[in-house]
Amino acid sequence: MPELEFLGTGDAGQVPRWGCDCGACQRARLDPARKRRPCSAALHTEEGTTLIDAGCTDLAERFAFDDIRRVLLTHFHMDHVQGLFHLRWGQCRSKIPVYRPDDPKGADDLYRHPGVFEFQPPCPAFERQQFPGFNLTPLPLLHSRPTQGLLIETPRTRLAWLTDTLGLPRVTQDFLQQQPRLDWLVLDCSEPPRQTPPRNHNDLTRALHTHHLLTPGRTLLTHIGHEFDDWLESDRGDLPATVSIARDGLRISL
Amino acid sequence: MPELEFLGTGDAGQVPRWGCDCGACQRARLDPARKRRPCSAALHTEEGTTLIDAGCTDLAERFAFDDIRRVLLTHFHMDHVQGLFHLRWGQCRSKIPVYRPDDPKGADDLYRHPGVFEFQPPCPAFERQQFPGFNLTPLPLLHSRPTQGLLIETPRTRLAWLTDTLGLPRVTQDFLQQQPRLDWLVLDCSEPPRQTPPRNHNDLTRALHTHHLLTPGRTLLTHIGHEFDDWLESDRGDLPATVSIARDGLRISL
Ligand SMILES: [Mn+2]
Ligand SMILES: [Mn+2]
Ligand SMILES: [Mn+2]
Ligand SMILES: [Mn+2]
Ligand SMILES: [Zn+2]
Ligand SMILES: [Zn+2]
């Protein structure tokens, strides 16, 4: 059965943040299970592994070259692509296709020196692509760069991976509301509740708003910053029953 | 006494290279002491630590925020700066100055979002700057981007860190030949002897040519690719007595 493995559930600064002594950062230094690395995942199917973003920089140690079938990128911020800069110089037996949003800049010199990677032409929003074991549909998000959410459909399960985003564009909200209900919503929630939302990311208030709009079977909050992580330590009792906090290493069956 | 710690001695692909089964890469997978991470170092003095390049991506785990006094960058290729993308979001009590070559592009969005780092105005070539415990003089190199070598002088020792480069510009060669002899030369040697030199890097032939021009007390070859590493396994007997191969974790007293 396909499985989604959360490789990282942190924001760009990760948890612990370098030099920070807040409660969440101190706890993460003492207990590696509380670390939050860059927000990303590995989708394991019978065919092999599909990476969802590549912000972790130890991917070469965790995954065999021959096991990686493709990379799905939400956007080209460094916390989502920095792991590719080393991987690209892999010893190339076959190219690894990278599916990406329509962002002509990419990241640094990745387009010019892609190495083992083969950047695919951007796929139009809402157009379903078929891969062995799952379908993929890109969903526009609201972020500071062109960013696509990923609707992943296996024979049994529908999951939407929506990072990085502040709320949802109307077209994406309408599309998801017209489709069968999601089993899983994986959603950007970078910060604790704020009076004014953070720029380009959800705080808890806006994340719960999206959760209530889409009423998925379960919501997993991710892209979690150290302040939200610290806030959760005292206040997580207030979350709706179907909302949980993702953690690094979490695996869910699809 | 000041000490220079080699954090990495590999080329951009590192050793082992992802997916490679050459002898060097196999040995490095079996024996962590043979790994070669991105070419970089930490200069430890009484004052604290000065980073020389920042291609390693675990710097936040290896160095306390308060211990890092500054970063010296040779150039803005990703294998020399990728570690800064996470560090920059550190919890900022004071800024960390970054000394860099005159490269208006930098790397990705580092200049626009420097976080804890404070990029200093480029220092003119051959102009000596004083820091607690050592002096620094930038030396122009020959590479595909603006790149500066680093002449580091402590009260007892003179060391030149020359990566990445193919040979030396005439002005740098003349400057070093007119100065007192170097105690240590740390030199780009990415590849085994080649009929035509690699682009932008030394092969062993060109590295030894520079060694003979400068006649330092000792030369340490670094920025080593897996093919050179594999070649060394059989042929290293041919190196001059004052030339050695750097390895990750090596420490030398300055
Ligand atoms: Mn992000
Ligand atoms: Mn982002
Ligand atoms: Mn390099
Ligand atoms: Mn370079
Ligand atoms: Zn913190
Ligand atoms: Zn190899």
Give an overview of the whole structure.
Chains A, B: Pfam families: Lactamase_B_2. Chains A, B: Residues 51-224 form the Metallo-beta-lactamase domain. 2 copies of one chain form a homodimer. Chain A has helices spanning 23-30, 59-62, 78-81, 84-87, 170-178, 204-214, 226-235; strands at residues 3-8, 40-45, 48-52, 68-72, 96-99, 117-119, 129-131, 134-140, 148-153, 158-162, 184-188, 218-222, 243-245, 251-253. Chain A is α/β, with parallel strands linked by helices. Chain A contains 7 helices and 14 strands. Helices cover 20% and strands 26% of the residues of chain A. In chain A, strand 11 (184-188), helix 6 and strand 12 form a beta-alpha-beta unit. The first copy, chain A, has a single domain (3-15, 22-253), classed as Metallo-beta-lactamase, Chain A, CATH 3.60.15. Chain A binds chain B through residues 12-14, 17-22, 25, 57-58, 60, 64-66, 78-79, 82, 85-87, 89-93, 107-109, 116, and chain B through 12-14, 16-22, 25, 57-58, 60, 64-66, 78-79, 82, 85-87, 89-93, 107-109, 116. One manganese (II) ion is lined by residues 75, 77, 143, 164 of chain A.
Biggest sheet strand order of chain A reads 6-5-4-3-2-1-14
The coarse overall form of chain A would be globular
Mean pLDDT of chain A: 96
Number of strands of chain A: 14
Q: Whole-Å distance between the termini of chain A? A: 7 Å
Q: Any idea what the radius of gyration of chain A is?
A: 17 Å
Just name the CATH architecture of chain A: 4-Layer Sandwich
What is the CATH superfamily label of chain A?
Answer: Ribonuclease Z/Hydroxyacylglutathione hydrolase-like
Question: Hey, which two chains have the biggest interface?
Answer: A-B, 31 and 32 residues
Low-confidence regions of chain A: none
Separate helix tally of chain A: 7
CATH C-level name of chain A:
Alpha Beta
What is the N-to-C succession of helices and strands of chain A?
A: EHEEHEHHEEEEEEHEHEHEE
Helix content of chain A: 10-25%
- Overall number of structural domains of chain A: 1
Strand content of chain A: 25-35%
Named once each, the bound ligands are: manganese (II) ion, zinc ion
- Determine the structural class of chain A based on helices, strands and strand pairing: alpha/beta
Question: Tell me about the biggest sheet of chain A?
Answer: 7 strands, mixed
Organism (chains A, B): Marinobacterium aestuarii
Domain Metallo-beta-lactamase (chains A, B): 51-224
Pfam families (chains A, B): Lactamase_B_2
GO biological process, one term (chains A, B): organic phosphonate catabolic process
